[in-house]
Structures are given as C-alpha cells and as structure tokens.
Amino acid sequence: MLSKEGRKARLVLADGTVFEGLGFGAEGEAVGEVVFNTSMTGYQEIITDPSYKGQIVSMTYSQIGNYGINSDDVESSGPQLEGFIAKEFFDFPSNWRSETNLGDYLSKHGKVGIHGIDTRALTSHVRDNGVQMGIISTTDTDPENLLAKVRRHPGISSLDLVSEVTTDTVYHWDRPLWQLHPQNKIIETKDRPSVVVYDFGIKQNILRHLVGAGFAVTVVPARTPAEKALEMADSIVLSNGPGDPQSAPYAVETVKKLIGKKPVLGICLGHQILGLALGGKTYKLKFGHHGGNHPVMDLATGKVEITSQNHNYCVDIQSLNDQVELTHRNLYDGTEEGMKHRDMPILSFQHHPEAGPGPNDSGYIFNTFRDLVKNW
C-alpha cells in the first residue's frame, strides 16, 4: 500500500503549515496553488486536465492509484498539474484496462507527489483559510527553506497559464466517446454543423462530446484571430482552462469580436472569458469548486443535476446589467453556474458538461448547443 521508495517528503503551505509524508512519482519540488478535489474516482482525468496547470491537487478520497493508468482516459497529452497529494498511494493497481501504475506515470512526466499525510486536515485547512500557494519537496525537507521558496512565488493569478497549455497548431478531431464495444465506424463530417473550439486548455472529453452531438470539430490556438475563426465554422466553443481569466486579456478581446456573429458556447474558463467580453466582472472563490458531486439547479425546470466542476473563479451575473439570463445555480453556495444571452445565440456554463471524470447529468448541453446552431 505504501510507496516502494519510502522517501521522506514535505508539503509546506504559504501560511507556514507543514505536512510530513512520503514521496512518490518524480523526485524534486513542485510549487503551486493547493486545492482539493472531492471526486472518488477519476484521478487520471484530473491529473491530465489542463485546467489544473499551476496547481497542486489533493484528493479527498483516501485510496488513490488502485486501478492504475490507461491511455484511453487521458484528457490531454499527459499530467498538467504541478504536484499531487494522496492519503494512500497504491503502486500495485488491479484493473483490466490498466497499463501502468500512477507512481511510474507521474515519474515519467516529472511530476512530484506526496502521500501518507492527513488529507482531511489539509482539506479542512484550505476550506477554512482559503486556497494558497504550497510546495512539495522530496529533496529539501527543511520547512524554513521550503517556506521561503513558496513565498517567493508570485501566485498563479499573475501568470498567463493559458499560453502554456494551448495547442500550437490547428487540428481536426473526429474521435467519439470511448465505448466498451467500439463500432469502428468512420465519423462522417459531411452535412455536420462545423464548430471551432478555442483551446484555452481543452479537455479531450469536450471534443468527444461535440463529435457525439454531431459536430465537425476543429481546434485552434488561444490567440487565433476572431476573423479567421469566423471563416472556418458555423459556431464557436470557448474551452475550459487554467488560472485567472483576467490574465488572458487577448482572449477577452478576441471573444468580443465573436459575440453576435456566430453561436457561442462557453465552458468553465471559456464561460468566464465570455462574461468579461460582455462587459461583466469575475471574482475568486475562497477555495473553489473541484470535484464530481456538485448539485446544480436548472432554474427553468427546477431539475437538479450532479455535476463535475473545476474552477476558482465565477462570473458576477449582476455585473452584466441584464444582458443575460441566469440559467443554473450551484446549490452548495448559491454561485452562478450558467447563463444565456437574451438577444444573441450564446450559452455559457461554469460546470463541466463533458464530465471526465464525473456524472453525465449535464451532457445534454452539447445537444442543446447543436440545436441552437442548426436553428440559427
């Protein structure tokens, strides 16, 4: 159950709180904003989600690594987070789809992990005191040294993390959702509505769902001019991604030029960038929403969806001066989860309809957007 290496490691938070444990994954140090994720499964999707760039993720579920890693369930080319925290790390996975163990996977990609700490105490501390920077080290275990290092970090709100995770090239995507018994059918793109997806840190499950909903999908870099994107497709999707939306002003300026020209769907960071482009404001949550068990109400129907979430920022709907209608609300804390424009073909959501990991209650959103595009 314990890491084979058994090497000592420390986690030090910016407020001086110290946790001692054992290292797994790569040797070295990792600095990032410490957040906790409440999903019980899906650590592989979480680790490879580009939205976690700049962050160290602690899993609240106690046993991590027990079903290993496979090449089908990744959300990007590899681990994107800065560091990883677990209560119990298992280096002997048991699952018919497993191809390698979690420790070796993190080590291969140079990502540092720590386990054997009280993640309940860490979660409570972050919940009560808010997210803050932290450092994991397997090479320097002096708390004073580590505290000095983490306090020198400027914080992720000052960084343009989108530029670090976006694609460098334009590419087409035609792969659907994973199936237990794949049909091996060729995905025809003829007569499908076309969509350009701005990659601010895209999760591949968004692309899989768009294919499944009937779109011909093209992915473009975050700095793609609006004029070029409008020439390429019938509609636009603004993807999820890491960091503070205000740290990517070029994206906000681009979206301003897209508004009203073609149907637009915003997801997570894309939702926040859209809110800023419409002239609104965003604000930072105390400890964010990260997990697969967040209840969200559809205000039009009263239906409650259990959703997958990963964000530290929200759109202040009231700052948009009645341009939009609030469509969804988080039942944990009442924060805004969705909006639609009153006059233009725009839908936008803070939670993750693509899940990966998480429940699929909100997957219908992709079909709703497809219908909006076809009607438009």
Notable traits:
single chain; 376 residues; alpha/beta; Glucose Oxidase, domain 1; Rossmann fold; 2 domains; ten-stranded mixed β-sheet; seven-stranded mixed β-barrel; 22% helix; globular
Structural class: alpha/beta
From the 3D coordinates, which CATH architecture of the largest domain would you assign?
Answer: 3-Layer(aba) Sandwich
If you compute it from the alpha carbons, what radius of gyration comes out, rounded to the nearest whole angstrom? 20 Å
CATH topology type of the largest domain:
Rossmann fold
How many domains, in number, for the residues?
2
Number of helices: 10
Biggest beta sheet attributes: 10 strands, mixed
Question: Span from first to last CA?
Answer: 55 Å
* Average pLDDT reading: 95
User: What string, H for helix and E for strand, traces the elements in order?
Assistant: EEEHEEEEHEHEHHEEHEHEHEHEEEEEH
Assign the CATH class of the largest domain.
Alpha Beta
Name the helicity range: 10-25%
Shape: globular
Polypeptide structure, described:
The protein is an alpha/beta fold and 376 residues long. Helix content is 22%, strand content 31%. The longest helix is centred in the last third of the chain and has 12 residues, at 364-375. It is globular.
Present the secondary structure layout.
Elements: E1 8-13, E2 18-25, E3 29-37, H1 43-47, E4 55-59, E5 63-64, E6 83-86, E7 88-89, H2 102-108, E8 112-115, H3 119-129, E9 132-137, H4 143-151, H5 162-165, E10 171-173, E11 194-199, H6 204-212, E12 216-221, H7 226-232, E13 235-238, H8 249-258, E14 264-267, H9 269-277, E15 281-298, E16 304-316, E17 324-330, E18 336-341, E19 346-349, H10 364-375
Parallel strand pairs: 3-4, 4-6, 5-7, 6-8, 11-12, 11-13, 13-14, 14-19
Antiparallel strand pairs: 1-2, 1-9, 2-8, 3-9, 10-12, 15-16, 15-17, 17-18, 18-19
Helix pairs in contact: 8-9
